[in-house]
Design a protein that fits this description.
With 254 residues, the chain is of the alpha+beta class. It is built from four helices and 16 strands. It has an eight-stranded mixed beta sheet with strand order 2-3-4-1-5-8-7-6, with helices on one face. An eight-stranded mixed beta sheet has the order 10-11-12-9-13-16-15-14, with helices on one face.
């Protein structure tokens, strides 16, 4: 990721919705070295912030709705949540939750693109988003897996103004040309029950070592460590509660 701080249109935060916040704290603490603490206020609903040192990098939360899946979620920064909601709805997306105030921190939206991938909007007030990117234990890349790449490209470039850089096998998203993520068409290798989704990738110093730590702590390697041609070394993992995420070697980001 060429972005090093939250900017409008770029990924600014990621949070895990899970059935076992305490178990997730242990798992990701061992994997990424996160120090986490739960907001004690009742209105915070058990929201748990994960830190590298003193810097917030991600969050862990209980499942707030019965239909909410165990999953990592990606938030994109916007300057006006209401305006963005109107635009994404006009383009065939859906607003699932919000816009709503999150204490003094900002305004929050859960939305879905026309193909069904769920993402979030964040209009910052007191809290801008992650304080670190692209270092071991921090978010470094976000990837859309979709069954209709053309429609997804039209939607996201219109809603967020993203730039697009396409090679033979991969499409990369950017803000003003600063790439932060990519898109993978879902072909027949993906079971039909797997929905379109956004997948966050976290930087690590050693992909093979991180994969061994994750599997030793009860996780699963969905894609074993692989060196992408002309790209980074990556792996796709699943935590003990079922949430998928990726890891890549820090310094290999595009």
């Amino acid at each position: 990721m060429k972005l090093d701080k939250p900017v409008p249109g770029g990924p600014c935060w990621t949070e895990l919705g899970t059935t076992d916040v305490d178990g997730a704290r242990r798992f990701y603490g061992e994997l990424f070295g996160w120090r986490s603490g739960t907001d004690p206020r009742q209105e915070a609903g058990g929201y748990t912030m994960a830190h590298l040192g003193d810097t917030a990098v991600a969050a862990l939360t209980p499942l707030y709705q019965p239909e909410q899946p165990v999953a990592w979620n990606v938030s994109f920064g916007v300057s006006d949540a209401e305006v963005t909601c109107r635009l994404l709805t006009e383009l065939g997306g859906r607003v699932l939750v919000g816009p709503m105030d999150v204490l003094e921190a900002g305004r929050f939206v859960v939305a879905a693109d026309p193909v069904g991938a769920v993402f979030r909007l964040w209009q910052a007030r007191a809290f801008p988003g992650a304080g670190l990117f692209n270092v071991p234990g921090a978010l470094g890349w976000v990837e859309l897996l979709t069954r209709d790449a053309r429609r997804a490209e039209t939607f996201y470039t219109t809603v967020f103004g993203w730039t697009v850089r396409t090679s033979e096998n991969y499409t990369q998203w950017g803000v003003g040309g600063a790439d932060f993520g990519g898109m993978v068409p879902m072909d027949d290798k993906f079971p039909p029950e797997v929905p379109p989704h956004w997948l966050p990738y976290f930087a690590v110093a050693d992909v093979d070592g991180a994969t061994a730590v994750a599997t030793g702590a009860g996780g699963t390697a969905l894609m074993e460590p692989t060196s992408v041609p002309d790209g980074p070394r990556i792996a796709v993992l699943r935590d003990p509660q079922g949430a998928m995420f990726g890891v890549y070697r820090a310094g290999d980001e595009g």
